[in-house]
Design goal:
Largest sheet: none
Order of helices and strands: HHHHHHH
Structural class: mainly alpha
Bound molecules: fe (ii) ion
CATH class: Mainly Alpha
Number of strands: 0
Helix content: over 70%
Distance between the termini: 45 Å
Number of helices: 7
Number of domains: 1
Strand content: under 5%
CATH topology: Four Helix Bundle (Hemerythrin (Met), subunit A)
Amino acid sequence: MLEPARPPLADHFTQVFRQEHRGLRDGLLELSDAFTARDLPRIRQVLHAVAAASGPHFRYEEESLYPGLTRIFGWEYVGKLLTDHDRVITAARRLVALAEQSELTPAEAVEAVRLVRSILPHVSDCDGLSIMVERFSESHIRAVLESREMAIGDGHDLFTWADRLRPRAA
Ligand SMILES: [Fe+2]
Ligand SMILES: [Fe+2]
């Protein structure tokens, strides 16, 4: 079979995108371990890192990547991706509320692990989108990468972005 044609930037995008999802995956798995251990200082530290990394990631996905995918998937599936983000933001807010307590009960730790697990499938689902990004034009992929750079440069964490910039309420 012939090697399918794809824009030169597509492989770069896929690598960058995969690397970001690896970071989020590892952060979430560590967060789950920290909640299981009811280790509040570690929970707060990892939660802070995950919120910092996911803010720019979600932002450029919603500002440039997901809208471009409507041409391939239509609005319905892209709507599902946005709803996934709503759920992640809501779950993350609850995790922060739990992390701010002076201690955690075993039941709260179980609740937190369940919440972290509810976030994880979006990480793997989202990473699969890069197979569709290969069908974007070179200039379109460049635009997505530029919006990524801008989002990283602005550096808003998940909650700051969701509260102040995101057009959609979670
Ligand atoms: Fe993603
Ligand atoms: Fe996403």
